Amino acid sequence: MKVAGIIAEYNPFHKGHAYHIEQAKRVTGADSVVVVMSGNFTQRGTPAIVDKYARAKMALLNGADVVIELPSCYACGSAEYFADGAIALLDGLGTVDCICFGTECGDINLLRPIAEFLANEPEEFKIILQEEMKNGHTYPQSRNTALAHCIPGFAEVENIIGSPNNILGIEYMKSIIRRKSRIVPYAIQRTGADYHSYRLADNAFSSSMALRQSVDLQGNLDLIRDQIPENVYQILKEEFGSHCPIFPRDLSSMLKYKLLVEESHGYTSFVDITDDLSDRILKNIYQSYDYEQLCEVLKSKNMTYARISRLLCHILLNLRKADMESYRENGTVFYARVLGFKDDERNVLSHIAKASTLPLITQVSQWRSLTSECAQKQFERDLLATHIYESVAADKYGTRMRNEYERQIVKV
To answer: Cis ω on the peptide bond leading into residue 12 (within 30° of 0)?
Structure first.
């Protein structure tokens, strides 16, 4: 049995995602698909519009065979952390032969030389990168300048590394190279609306951002119904108004509390928080900003809104630099938390259980049997993230908070 891996957020799942799963099987020749999916918080530093169990069910009903949660420290991380955590997880399962990701360019051969270069950064590249960042340029700008100095003909492919899905694809490949993984990467052409598009597409796949924006502005699911599979619509409809949708501003009070608790220490102990950003947060802590307004206030020429949102999420979820360094030094990921699987004749999960070098977690209580301190701390952070999310949802909709220990693995 050939197994393809997909790394996703499905926030929410739409017809473009169903197309991706279908094409992944076609392009790779895979019989089955294992999805590594972000939990209740995403790489943008925002809460998912609906919880991870609902999104896992969406994936399983539309072509996935197993859905495994990406630990929150990577799900909310930079492109490099996000990609490396996901690849480490897929690699540790022992059964994944290949990964298939969507890119703007659709050509793996254009991405490979860039990935190989970045996987083995020469000293010249590092020096130029640091100099550019010291001069106040963003990391992407600094990286492009350094690459232009080091790669002959880089100007011809500069637009490749400026596109978000290309960037993630390069990071996936970089992680595969560094890990000497046997996983084979495949790229397919991303179709439909731009990744950053806020507008629903009439004759193409809309972006997840456009779907979320529509739900937020309209207050209902009417306009997105044609953009998502019918089974996804039914899941959203069932959750709507009782547990979803959740938006960044819903986290405002929780974030304010966390910022006040940490005020006396500053925020530099959290992942990727600089001294400058910590100082700017402290200057604004007593202003009446919600989550999104605070991101707008804190963004600068070398820190985008999305990056600020992600860094605030690190603070909210208590993701510390020391912990991340320990994870990266001692194995990156330490368990595979199964959110759901397709219980059919293939039973891919049983194959994973036999081959995986990572312990499989199918019931939350099993985390206590994890043997390393890193593993336990990483899982505790996942629990915290889930309970923060569920607390916010319960307060917003006046419903009972769902306890992670009481949730059941999704079977379809």
So the answer is: yes
Residues 277 and 262 in one domain: yes
Amino acid, res. 151:
I
Average the pLDDT over each of 4-18, 35-49, 99-113 and give the range with the smallest value. 99-113
Tokens 């939990």 identify what position? 39
How high is the pLDDT of residue 406? Answer: 95
Longest dimension (CA), the chain: 59
Q: Would the pTM count as exceeding 0.85? A: yes
**Tokens read off for 354:** 């036999």
* Alpha-carbon span 207 to 246, nearest angstrom: 18
- Give yes or no for a cis peptide into 245 (omega within 30° of 0): yes
12 and 208 Cβ atoms separated by less than 8 Å: yes
CA angle, 150 as apex, 146 and 154 as ends, to 5°? 85
Same domain, 186 and 99: yes
pLDDT digits (tens, 9 = 90+) for 196-215: 555 676 666 889 999 999 99
Residues whose CB is less than 8 angstroms from the CB of residue 308 and which lie 6 or more positions away in sequence, other chains included: 45, 277, 294, 295, 298, 299
Other C-beta atoms lying within 10 Å of the C-beta of residue 373:
12
Same domain, 79 and 206: yes
Q: How many domains does the chain have?
A: 3
Nearest to 407 by CA among 343, 335, 337, 339: 339
SS3 59: helix
Is residue 50 within 8 A of residue 244, CB to CB? The reply is yes
Give the three-state DSSP class for 343.
Answer: coil
**Residue-wise DSSP of 237-250:** HHHBTTTB---GGG
**Exposure letters 259-298 (e unless 16+ CB within 10 A, then b):** beebeeeebebbbbbeeebbebbeeeeeeebbbbebbeeb
